[in-house]
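testing teh design pipeline on a random one, pls ignore if ur not involved
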């Protein structure tokens, strides 16, 4: 791309970043803000300064918030423009001339949230220099869906592994948000798929994402079913899910245990009773999660003897939503599978919150670090904790690890869905595969993973990222008088009680006179900027940014990937900077890769012919993004070289680099607490060892309590219930008859007196929701059984099985 033509140049501008001022010149072109320092005036006076000239480029579409603080010329106080970028860069520009500040603000605004259509973004104008390595690489050719399925062992020429490639969606008429190339069970016809599509939101039927190379267990994904209040069913959907869970065993005509026995030792970690103390064994929380999922699968019901870990299949349907959210969706005709019709599997709910909760969480993080332009001080630790960002990242990692363990260790199949199957589903599916397959931990493999599970399966990058920006992200304050100018070390007057009271009154007034909440901020701007410059620009249908749709879903995936990279630094070919630059280019709009919302829209826009792919940028700069510690050797018998990796949930930390902060600023308190806990544990272990060796606290002459008989046929050992802070697992659900085949429970005792008048379908939903003990632990607080069709399993400390509606 030729050097951009600067439309506006402002000289003698003071920029503030991290509380440090810098004098330079500000240039604005169609797509970038460029700050050049020292200024030309200083270079003219001292030519030696020309050797020290630097430029900082800021893409307009990475702007997350832009605020104009205009002051009257007579005040003698400079006007300022404060900008927060999506990559968490904060910078302020002070203008001596009030008119220049207004002009710059208006131009930036016009080139950001008033373009009107996606094809006016930078990607449609950008091209790397013809002589550059990037120009010679076609990033669009890196991913080929058929080639990736061939790598997994699925193709027309390869041996039948129980899966086939269907062309039912070749023209995207079957499911517009699904990829053109789909892998489905070999024994399921396209006609069956068409009927099953009527039972899934947006026709996003269960389809293959990953096939394990050794045990042929799978990760499939879909959207939520149309169950509704009447608990509807679909025979075709049940057949499809059943086929997904039996494809491998149908081929061999052998039981799941035999498939598990055939798996070579290099494909999974041996977690039998004999090797429970191995370095790669499960943590207590992970083991309890698996036991809650599998019920009593680790102990024979009759003999009480421990069974081989993973020898029995426990196929899972994973609903990523909190159970109450799923039940609430039944009121509008959707919901979650009725497990009476999916007896070949169990269903688990995960407490992963929706896009609105995640957006609010990140906004609180931003509040904690929002003075990064004018202040060198660390972020507000209290606000960081209140954001619960790390809790959300931990939950996503925990849920993904559950899926990875089911596939690799339990030798079972997993179907994942949330609501539409393109947000939380993409997070869980991609992260689980990252834990399972070393290929996806290479630079090329990670690109393929993003293309497959995010781009082709329809994560809505345009809506979630807000590529066309929004008017509310631009605000103007026409009353910035003395005392509110931005100076190093100032807090911009936010602590002034009177100013806050006036601002609250103003917001209250606007809220009550405006019918459009999203445009309330535009009412603020009306008094500050010339009305003639605020003419709205028509936006192409379906392309406008809707604030309620913006959410950091992909950011969370990259954050969770960073956690794995940080905890397993030798298992990834790419480095942290690769993840950080990838997040930047999701918002920069410099490349066509992340434009639009699905594969169909990208093909219709002919992005491969009109734009460049971001993968060419990364592949042409491999040395910059390669991890120097990477060890490609796979050996499950050598610590640190295992095929599988799992997160250590207690070691989740802030991704401080992405927030442009130091590790000590973001994680100092967490690291100190962890170090203290390690010292306490070491001391306790040493003390325990000393006491056990003392003749007063041990030895043959002491009468020790009798050892518990774990082989007793009348009572099997069971773990205590997991606490909410320990696990993302929210509940386990399976067919009622599978637990109590002989009888039906009597009507629920906790139903109100008028419940008998509620229609049967509505009563089912009421019964489920009324039984939810939302504030009493991760599995709910109710201990009595209710009467609905589907029950949740809970194991109490005494080893007794409980049936609950609650999650």
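output:
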């Amino acid at each position: 791309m030729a050097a951009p033509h600067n439309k506006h140049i402002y000289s003698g501008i003071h920029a503030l970043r991290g509380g440090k001022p810098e004098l330079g010149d500000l240039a604005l072109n169609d797509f970038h803000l460029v700050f050049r320092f020292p200024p030309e005036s200083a270079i003219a006076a001292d030519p030696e300064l020309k050797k020290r000239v630097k430029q900082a480029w800021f893409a307009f579409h990475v702007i997350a918030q832009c605020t104009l603080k205009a002051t009257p010329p007579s005040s003698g106080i400079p006007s300022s423009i404060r900008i927060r970028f999506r990559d968490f860069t904060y910078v302020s520009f002070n203008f001596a001339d009030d008119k220049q500040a207004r002009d710059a603000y208006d131009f930036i605004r016009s080139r950001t949230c008033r373009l009107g259509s996606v094809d006016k973004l930078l990607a449609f104008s950008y091209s790397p220099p013809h002589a550059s390595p990037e120009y010679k690489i076609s990033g669009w050719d890196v991913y080929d869906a058929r080639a990736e399925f061939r790598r997994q062992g699925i193709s027309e020429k390869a041996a039948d592994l129980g899966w086939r490639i269907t062309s039912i969606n070749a023209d995207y008429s079957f499911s517009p948000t699904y990829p053109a190339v789909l892998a489905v069970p070999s024994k399921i016809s396209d006609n069956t798929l068409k009927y099953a599509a009527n039972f899934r939101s947006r026709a996003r039927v269960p389809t293959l994402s990953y096939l394990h190379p050794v045990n042929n267990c799978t990760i499939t994904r879909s959207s939520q079913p149309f169950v509704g209040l009447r608990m509807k069913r679909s025979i075709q959907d049940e057949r499809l899910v059943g086929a997904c869970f039996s494809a491998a065993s149908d081929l061999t005509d052998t039981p799941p245990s035999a498939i598990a026995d055939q798996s070579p030792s290099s494909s999974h970690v041996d977690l039998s009773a004999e090797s429970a103390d191995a370095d790669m064994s499960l943590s207590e929380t992970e083991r309890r999660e698996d036991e809650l999922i599998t019920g009593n699968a680790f102990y024979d019901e009759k003999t009480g003897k421990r069974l081989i870990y993973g020898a029995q299949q426990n196929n899972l349907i994973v609903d990523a939503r909190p159970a109450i959210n799923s039940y609430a969706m039944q009121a509008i005709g959707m919901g979650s599978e009725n497990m009476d019709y999916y007896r070949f599997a169990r269903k688990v709910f995960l407490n992963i919150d929706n896009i609105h909760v995640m957006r609010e969480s990140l906004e609180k993080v931003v509040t904690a670090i929002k003075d990064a332009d004018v202040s060198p001080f660390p972020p507000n630790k209290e606000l960081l904790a209140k954001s619960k960002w790390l809790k959300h990242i931990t939950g996503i990692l925990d849920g993904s690890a559950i899926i990875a363990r089911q596939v690799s260790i339990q030798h079972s199949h997993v179907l994942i869905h949330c609501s539409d199957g393109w947000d939380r589903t993409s997070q869980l599916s991609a992260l689980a595969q990252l834990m399972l397959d070393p290929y996806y931990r290479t630079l090329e493999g990670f690109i393929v993973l993003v293309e497959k599970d995010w781009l082709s399966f329809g994560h809505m990058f345009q809506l979630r990222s807000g590529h066309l920006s929004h008017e509310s992200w631009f605000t103007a304050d026409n009353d910035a008088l003395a005392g509110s100018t931005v100076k190093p070390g100032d807090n911009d007057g936010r602590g002034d009680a009177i100013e806050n009271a006036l601002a609250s009154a103003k917001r209250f007034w606007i809220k009550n006179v405006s019918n459009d909440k999203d445009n309330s901020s535009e009412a603020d701007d009306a008094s500050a900027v010339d009305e003639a410059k605020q003419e709205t620009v028509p936006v192409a249908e379906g392309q406008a940014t809707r604030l309620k749709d913006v959410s950091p879903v992909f950011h969370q995936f990259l954050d969770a990937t960073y956690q794995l990279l940080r905890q397993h630094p030798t298992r990834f070919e790419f480095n942290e900077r690769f993840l950080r630059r990838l997040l930047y280019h999701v918002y920069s709009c410099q490349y066509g890769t992340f434009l639009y919302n699905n594969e169909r829209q990208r093909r219709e826009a002919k992005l491969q012919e009109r734009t460049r792919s971001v993968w060419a940028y990364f592949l042409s700069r491999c040395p910059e993004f390669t991890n120097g510690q990477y060890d490609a050797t796979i050996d499950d018998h050598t610590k640190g070289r295992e095929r599988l990796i799992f997160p250590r949930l207690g070691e989740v930390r802030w991704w401080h680099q992405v927030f442009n902060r130091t590790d000590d600023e973001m994680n100092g308190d967490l690291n100190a607490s962890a170090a203290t806990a390690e010292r306490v544990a070491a001391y306790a272990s040493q003390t325990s060892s000393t006491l056990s060796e003392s003749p007063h606290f041990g030895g043959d002459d002491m009468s020790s309590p009798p050892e518990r008989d774990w082989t007793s046929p009348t009572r099997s050992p069971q773990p205590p219930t997991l606490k909410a802070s320990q696990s993302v697992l929210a509940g386990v659900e399976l067919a009622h008859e599978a637990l109590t085949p002989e009888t039906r429970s009597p009507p629920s005792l906790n139903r109100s007196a008028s419940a008998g008048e509620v229609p049967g379908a509505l009563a089912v939903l009421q019964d489920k929701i009324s039984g939810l003990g939302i504030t009493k632990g991760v599995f709910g607080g109710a201990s009595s059984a209710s009467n609905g069709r589907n029950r949740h399993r809970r194991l109490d400390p005494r080893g007794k099985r409980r049936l609950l509606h609650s999650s």
